[in-house]
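Why does residue order matter? Because the sequence determines the fold. Keep that principle in mind as you read this record.
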Amino acid sequence: MTPRRLYVGTFIALGWLLALGIAFHFGLTTFIARAYNRLASRLDWISQRASDVEGAALTRLRHGARRDYLEPMRAVLSDPRALRDPKQMLFGAYDGGFPRDTAGFSKLEEQVRFRFPIISFYAAWGDKAEQQFPMRMVESIDRLGSVPMITWEPWVTDFDERLRPNLPSKSEREYASLAAIGRGDYDFYVAPWAKAAAQFKKPIYLRFAHEMNDPYRYPWGPQNGNRPADFIKAWKRVREIFEKMGATNVIWIWSPHISMPWFEFYFPGADQVDWIGVGVLNYGTSASWSRWWSFHQILEKSWGPLTALKKPIMVCEMGTIAQGGDMAEWYRQAFYHLEHTYGRIKAVVFFNQPSDATTTSTPLNWSVLQDPRTTQFLARELARMAANST
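Structure:
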């Protein structure tokens, strides 16, 4: 199908969607509402397919050499077994423009002169089309030669009350949400995700319900009555569904908040977890509760309990802001400790978010590109470590 025909079909279908949307606004039955949701999802697929035609051409024109760059690692990047415990250090990145805009990610790779084997992005639970399994995104990442890493966030209030009458109201839904996931209340959402992941067939890193032990950040934390046992039950149920759907290509990352005590009580078991994921983010002097912490200072207190679990460790979010210290020196020390102190760390994902408004009232800039010395240092170090691993 040509791009022109795809776009024509998309616009015709959008006209029907608009008409149904107006009717839906004035109160349709649950049956019609479900039909509307299915049509919206289908139209999203059509529009994504149209974009894919252009995306494939852009890949050939602009990124054709990217997959070739990563070709020496193909045996590892295409094998879930090898990715569960790689013999070499893997590097990845998340960019704040994902999934709509990849310009920031492309600029990052150009500036550090490196092609990241892991591309990270975030996906929230819910009924919207963009909250279903991101097949277009993972396929695009695969075409570029990398492995997708999805941080999968159970925002249960994003499910539409009109479509999900069996769920509690939104005002009550966040309380004990992990227990609800564990007893199967959200199987209707997990199962299609698992089925689609299995259909993708290629490796996917999946980081489910991260920082579940943090009582301040996410609604699936303990402040909402979510106990360690509830998290473990939810994790096991979700993973069991993926296994039943044949999604053996999924690699599971358990990711607690390491600054909170007793995080090991949330561990689902060695047979349930492939990687341990940690966040190492230095907030500097950006808030009253923070100060300048080095990479080593953030990790050292939790290292004993982490290594006792005997799993490879991934820094799923690594970064520092510039406020309060020397960014280039922070990364220099971090790379020293990666090589000489924390040998169980087998992967690092840079948090390249230039405008993060999720924690402080003023957006924070985590991008390494804001400081030329840091950019130059990372370019040298990534090239050196890549050469040493071949």
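Residues 2-8, 10-33, 39-62 have pLDDT under 50 and may be disordered.
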